[in-house]
């Protein structure tokens, strides 16, 4: 997501110390006033909030029932199961993108709801954004919105063998207005893309999750990145390998305490939000928030 609201974060030693209810997959983060909001995969599209950036409380989900259009695009969609949202603030409105799918297929759709106030809790269904089926070249899941250096809007999306795509977004409809361009592929899995522009380096950065998710401490998810001088690519890893050819520079592969980090969201250029599986809690998926830094060569890192 692209953060246009306050960028004041609590003081931390690189990684924030979090308490409360922090069980999440695929978190999307934004700050509204003094409240930190996290939207995540789960029944009805899960919502967490914190008034201090450290202690999180679970709120009501976005959906109490399915919008009428879901079954038309994803007939076998499992009840209220919603995947990998993204929250984007633009011109006074919060745009919450999300995906619905059937596991293991490309029968998927990205949807959109909007509100003028997250804390107000009233969301308006804006319908389908983009859809796919098993004959499509892409899988319409894992949306992420961004604004480029010229002020144009783009959405990255896609997953697995079909790779990551980007498409231009209309400022009036907030839906695709052109072709989709493939940015990255990776054998063994690639998904959960986040695309950001760093004005200090002049590059666009494509963050991705590679490997396998959702297997607790046996998950092989890793967070990787590539960069490009253009929003439509080509993107390259540090070693010069094109992301279209499987290139990706891993920046988080987990550790003895946290396994399978992924589902990342980049807030501005100074914060990375993600999930990882807690070894201490038998593989429970937990929210992690860390300050994001940039080295002298213009590559991101965090502790």
Automatic annotation (TrEMBL):
GO molecular function per UniProt: arabinan endo-1,5-alpha-L-arabinosidase activity
UniProt-annotated site: Important for catalytic activity, responsible for pKa modulation of the active site Glu and correct orientation of both the proton donor and substrate, residues: 142
Gene3D superfamilies, sorted: Glycosyl hydrolase domain, family 43
Name of the protein in question: Family 43 glycosylhydrolase
Annotated source species: Paenibacillus spiritus
Pathway: Glycan metabolism; L-arabinan degradation
PANTHER family, sorted: ARABINAN ENDO-1,5-ALPHA-L-ARABINOSIDASE, ARABINAN ENDO-1,5-ALPHA-L-ARABINOSIDASE A-RELATED
Active-site residues from the entry: 26 (proton acceptor), 191 (proton donor)
Keywords: Glycosidase, Hydrolase
GO biological process: arabinan catabolic process
Family the entry assigns: Belongs to the glycosyl hydrolase 43 family.
